[in-house]
Amino acid sequence: MFVLAVLRDTLKIVPSEFTKSREEALKYEINRKYANRVLHDIGLCMMVHDILEIDEGYVQHSEGWIWVKVIFRLIVFRPFKDEILVGRIRSASPEGIQVSMGFFDDITISADQMPVGSEYNGTEGVWVWRYEGNELFMDLDEQVRFQVLDSAFLDVNPPRPKIGDVDSVPASHPPPYSLICTIAGDGLGLLTWW
Amino acid sequence: MEVLNRQEALVCNYEVLMVLQEEDQRHKRIKSTPYFKYPENVNTLKFEALHYLNDTACATQSAEQIATLKGRLVDYDLTKAEVLQIINLRPKKAVELHLIIEECEERFGMDDLEVMLEEIKSALPRADDDEDENEGEDEANDEDGGDMD
C-alpha cells in the first residue's frame, strides 16, 4: 500500500537548526512540509525515507537562512488497483459504508459493492448480510478486508466562507484523495466471516 | 517542488513501520528541548500510522524473515505485487490467497496453496498461530460431542 516517490524541492534551514547535521535538519523540514498531506496524483505523503542528493546551499542576500536543493524519497500511501487492505467500519448509511485505516479515512464502499444479499438495517443503523439463512451484522468498528477498485484525486481549493457571513462554518469539502472499494467477493468483508 | 519519479519502488509495511518507529524515538529524545514545538501534522500521522501498523502482521516481522519468505516464494512465479501483499497481509487461509493471487485456480492447485500457506506460516511465525490451531481443535471436539448425542 506504500510506494516511494522521488521528489526534488528547495527547502530552507534556519539558523536555530545549524547545530544539527544537514541531513537531520533537512529530514525534519521535509516531514514538516509533507507529512499527512495529499499531493495531487501522488497520494498521501507519510514520511521521508531517505535523502539522495543535497546541493551546497545558498544564502539569499537580506535573508538569514540557507536554501538547499534536495532530492529525496518520500513514503507515500497509494494502494494500487485490486490491492487487498484491512480497515475498520467507521460509519454506515443507506448509500454504503465508510471505512477507516486510522491515518486515512476516505474509503468508500457503496451500496452496490456490498455482498450480494445485504441490506441496510435502518433501526440498527448498520448493514446486514443475509447469507444461507444467517444474518451477519456489519457493526461499526469491526475490521473488514476490502479490495481497491479505483482511486480519485480531486484538486481542491481551500474552503472559503461566504462573503458577509463571518460566523458560517465552511461546508465539508470533498476529500482530495479517496478510494472506491468493494467487499463483494469471497474472502472480503468482516475478518470474522472467513 | 518537482516529482522526479511518481513510483520508484513499492515498500512493504514492515519498512514503513521501521521508519515510523525511528522517527518516534527521535521525537522522544528531543521532546524535552525547550522552545521546541513538534509539528502537529507529523505527530498525527506518526501516531495514527503506528497505531494501524502495530495491529497488522508487520509488527512481528523482521528483515530476515521477509528475506526467507521471498526466497521460498521465488519458485511460485508470483508478481511483485502478489509477493508484497502476502508479506503485508500474511494470509492464513486459502481463500485469502485466492484474493491476492490473480487467476489463482488456473495457476495453483489446492495442494500448492496449502504448501504456500505452510511456508508463509513458518517464515513469518506469530504467537497467535497456536491459538488458531487450538480453536480448530476445539471446534472438531465439539462436532464429535454433537455426534455422540
From TrEMBL, chain A:
Residues 8-64 form the RNA polymerase Rpb7-like N-terminal domain. Gene3D superfamilies: Nucleic acid-binding proteins (2.40.50.140), RNA polymerase Rpb7-like, N-terminal domain (3.30.1490.120). One of its GO terms (biological process) is transcription initiation at RNA polymerase III promoter. Transmembrane segments: none annotated. It is found in: Nucleus. The keyword Nucleus applies. Signal peptide: none annotated. Residues 83-194 form the RNA polymerase III subunit Rpc25 domain. InterPro entries: NA-bd_OB-fold (IPR012340), RNA_pol_III_Rbc25 (IPR013238), RNA_pol_Rpb7-like_N_sf (IPR036898), Rpb7-like (IPR045113), Rpb7-like_N (IPR005576). Keywords: DNA-directed RNA polymerase, Nucleus, Transcription. One of its GO terms (cellular component) is RNA polymerase III complex. The keyword Zinc-finger does not apply. Belongs to the eukaryotic RPB7/RPC8 RNA polymerase subunit family. PANTHER family: DNA-DIRECTED RNA POLYMERASE II, III, DNA-DIRECTED RNA POLYMERASE III SUBUNIT RPC8. This is DNA-directed RNA polymerase III complex subunit Rpc25. It comes from Coemansia pectinata.
UniProtKB/TrEMBL annotation, chain B:
It comes from the Eukaryota. This is Uncharacterized protein. It comes from Coemansia aciculifera.
